[in-house]
């Protein structure tokens, strides 16, 4: 689960600072990372709130599930959001780095022989794996310098 939730039921109008201060009164100062406030048609406002850790998200979701979190005369409802307001950078890992290699480009011609079409000395080999955010899979690539 992400660190962002959607809160609905604020008495309109509310500001970003009001929502942040209201939630930090419950979760502690500095726990809210980002807030976006919006208004649907009707008297209630909603807010998307990104917390700095998952524990605060769980606490707010628990409070709203038991109708224990009220803003003025209105209880709040909350849902976890799939995407954060401020996306976290995906880590890029450099797994292998080998320097000063001889690169031979060619093809095998038998079980024990390799036909060299081209070669290059003093090559650095770097193998990197990155996470594809769309398909949620790791892809590995290499680069010869």
Written overview of the protein:
It contains two helices and nine strands. The strands form three sheets. Strands 2-3-1-6 form a four-stranded antiparallel beta sheet, covered by helices on one side. The chain has two domains: 4-80, RRM (RNA recognition motif) domain (Alpha-Beta Plaits, 2-Layer Sandwich), CATH 3.30.70; 93-144, no CATH class. With 145 residues, it is α+β, with helices and mostly antiparallel strands. Strand 4 and strand 5 (74-75) form a beta hairpin. It is rod-shaped, with a radius of gyration of 26 Å. It has helices at 16-27, 54-65; strands at 4-11, 32-39, 44-51, 70-71, 74-75, 77-80, 93-108, 114-132, 137-144.
């Amino acid at each position: 689960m992400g660190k962002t939730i959607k809160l609905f039921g604020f008495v309109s109008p509310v500001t970003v600072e009001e929502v942040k201060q209201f939630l930090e009164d419950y979760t502690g100062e500095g726990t809210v990372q980002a807030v976006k406030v919006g208004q649907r048609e009707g008297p209630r406002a909603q807010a998307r709130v990104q917390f700095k850790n998952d524990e605060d998200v769980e606490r707010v979701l628990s409070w709203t599930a038991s109708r224990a979190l009220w803003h003025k005369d209105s209880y709040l409802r909350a849902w976890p959001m799939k995407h954060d307001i401020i996306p976290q950078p995906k880590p890029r890992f450099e797994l292998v780095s080998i320097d000063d290699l001889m690169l031979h480009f060619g093809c095998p011609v038998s079980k024990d022989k390799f036909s060299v079409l081209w070669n290059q000395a003093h090559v650095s080999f770097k193998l990197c794996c990155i996470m594809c955010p769309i398909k949620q899979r790791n892809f590995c690539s290499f680069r010869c310098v």
